[in-house]
Design goal:
Elements (H helix, E strand, L loop, with lengths): L5 E13 L11 E15 L2 E6 L2 E5 L5 E16 L18 E4 L3 H18 L3 H14 L8 H10 L9 H8 L3 H12 L3 H17 L6 H7 L5 H12 L3 H5 L3
Antiparallel strand pairs: 1-5, 2-3, 2-4, 2-5, 4-6
Helix pairs in contact: 1-2, 4-5
Amino acid sequence: MMTHKLHIQVLDSTGNAEGYLMHPFKVAVYAFSYLTEGEVLVEVDGQNLLVSAGQFILVPENLPILVRHFKDCKGFYGSFTLDFLKDASYPVLRSDSPIIQSFWFDDAVFIGALMKRMITAHEDHDKAFMQSGIDLILGQLRPKSSLAAVPEKFLQLVFDREKMPLSVSEYADMLHVTPNYLNKTVKLHTHRTAIDWIEIARLNMAKQLLKDPSVPIVEVASRVGLDDQSYFSRFFKKKTGLTPSQYRNGK
């Protein structure tokens, strides 16, 4: 069988996942993904990036990747090596950080259709079409296309694994903006409110801590920023359908 240096397949992961339960990984190739539905928050080399429907992400080779959160993701993902390309001079290939590019309306439909055709080409070992397809996509990407500065910095702070989640006002103070501005800009650029992301981070951290039976539940509550254990239990059950004790015992 012919071996290609470009791989592409359909992404169809419904439901939710807590990134704290996953492990970082590295790949010695360029990795990419294009979402047609859903969202994924991925940490790449210490940088938290939110990828939503209509967005393409390109990750340079050998960078550590950790999926922190995803919800109802559909689209495509794959990888390639530089020597597979007909032209390896695209500016985005000289970037040492991830690139996120948004595609809207007709462009989004075109990229989705191109990805589908590339999957067929991969199955048919049609190297020429795969080369043309990935070259066409790389030509559409622009360096430094990422989230706005405040939302990106906010996500960095919220998903800092070494610190407990704080309040919207505390993050606003750290970013030197008002809570109202922080809420508006985070909602605009991520389609979720600031408190939504804080609760996702809090729940992820709680689940990780509950995996360790040596950590009392009252301490879990405190370490995720909810000193009232009864409130923490109500919060956890509302989000998961289980009490912290039931989750810890695998019920």
